[in-house]
Amino acid sequence: MRAPIGDFDHVRPAPEALDLLTRPVADAVRHWRGTVPAQDLIHVDTDPEWADTATFVEHYGPELLAQSANCVVVAGRRGGESTLAACVVLSTTKVDVNGAVRRQLGARKASFAAMDTAVGETGMEYGGITPIGLPADWQVLVDAAVVDLPYVLIGSGTRRGKLIVPGKALAELPGAVVLEGLGIG
């Protein structure tokens, strides 16, 4: 099997790679709903040393940068309440935390969640957090530019491996909210 983007040695449909995924991601793939079939979610097995975007595209090819997205966990605060959410933006942009995120969450202040919070709440490895398999009560804010991609490379829940999914599949995730301008610069 060949990946729809990139050139990878180990490629298989995500439902056949459940043993390489964290429990929340594997459960989400196992119980996948939506117009995109689960078989169209592709797992590529990669070296965990190359998980960070810059290193990854240096090793696997610079053309992947324009087809990659990062998923970060943010915390919005208003009064004494804190709300966690995830943001998915193109790897070539940064999350508009103080604008789009803060407004969408109705927060007075928004910031990136601490690493231990992000890892503990998602059940995923830092540097591999993906929008697939996040807690059901979270908003998953997805930049419209990500949804528009035919295929996008995202984390797999671990630093070893990535998922390649049709961009439109991310708009159908539980809690997904597609926003113009979530990714800036």
From TrEMBL:
This is YbaK/EbsC family protein. Gene3D superfamilies: YbaK/aminoacyl-tRNA synthetase-associated domain. Residues 63-172 form the YbaK/aminoacyl-tRNA synthetase-associated domain. It comes from Streptomyces tabacisoli. GO terms for molecular function: aminoacyl-tRNA deacylase activity. Coiled coil: none annotated.
